[in-house]
Structure formats: structure tokens, C-alpha cells
Amino acid sequence: MSLNDETITAVSELKLKGWVRLGLQEDLGSFLPTVLGRFARAHPDVRVEARIARNADLLNRIENGSLDLAVAWGGVKKNGYQETIVELPMQWIGSSHRYLDWRVESGNPLPVIAFDAPCPFHSKATDALNLAGIPWHLSFTSSSLNGLSAATEAGLGYTIRTALGLQSGTELLNIEDRGLPALPSIALTLHRHEANPNPLTERLSSMVVQAIRSEIA
């Protein structure tokens, strides 16, 4: 039995009722919906509402109370309850088909694929490029991770995420081979609207944290 199955079995022994609203990053979309589905089936009296959105939207919804829980990239904020789930290194990502073979010695600007600002991956990557004196330009922007991944797979540029939820058709790049700058780590953080939540929100929080840690183990 997997850790996720064990977690769901344990919480299914509780008689949970109510409504809980959860916000997620797209990077978690490959595995967390399955876990949430099992949780919902184990608790037919619980209504789970999940939303995938970008950081700023998720954090705004936590602040105004329209979400109970959210998993977002970046460090803790001054207000509300937060728990760092894991620290992951940011990675340069390219097409697994090797359609683009950019190298720093070419002198050509690096085509970058990223979300529009504000985005922690966008800002940290471009800061690192500027510090290293590497010219770059935004070759593709999108409001969705699927859009970034499709453009990366097609060879329109290199993007920046973590290894978590790496999309098909893309791969992590060897930065030494290409002369790409090293990138910092980034925290994946659980945010809660209330510091002392009800038992349902507390149990779902624990399940989400364990599922993510199990995925990266």
C-alpha cells in the first residue's frame, strides 16, 4: 500500500463532514487530483472544491477567505498560517527532442519561456542571466503550465520550473554543458486561511503535505 493510500485509509476512519476549498499549482496536477478523488470517495459527506491557479491568485484567495488551503511557490508571508512542505532546486528545462541546442559560447540571446511577471521562476531566472551577463529575450509567454511545456517541447526556448511534475516531451538540462547560470531553490508552501482550522481542513492539509512529500521521495 502506498503512503497516499495509507493516509486516505487512516482519514477514512474519521466521520468527516463539511466543505473545504483548496488551491493548487499546476505542477501538482499530475498526481494530486487522483489523491483528492480518493479522499472525496472515502468521505461522501465532504464537499471538496479544488482550483488550479497561479501564485498571486491563490494567495489573494487565502487572504480574502475564498480558499481554506493553498499550495503555492515561494517563502512564507507575514500574515496567515504557512508550512514549508519542501525546498526544491529550480531547473532549466528544454525539449527532450533536442530541437534547441543553445550554448553560451554562441553569443546569441537565450530564448526564455516563462509566465508573465510576477512569477518567482521568471524573476529568479532572469536575475541569474543578468548577473552572468548572458543576453536573453522572452520567446513565449503563457497563462498555463501546459502552454509553457508545449512551447518548450517544440524548441521555442528554455523554461524554468522544478523537477516536480516535469511534463512529457521536456527534460532537465545540464547547465554546465550549455553555460546556463545556476538557479536557487524555491519553497513549496502550504497556506491556510485559519491558524486553527476545523478537523476537516486539518486532515486535508496533512494529506496534501504527505502526498507531495511522497511524490518527491
Automatic annotation (TrEMBL):
Matches recorded under Pfam families: LysR_substrate
Domain LysR substrate-binding: 17-207
Keywords annotated in UniProt: DNA-binding, Transcription, Transcription regulation
Protein name, as recorded: Transcriptional regulator
GO MF annotations in UniProt: DNA binding; DNA-binding transcription factor activity
Gene3D superfamilies: Periplasmic binding protein-like II (3.40.190.10)
Entry keyword Ion transport: no
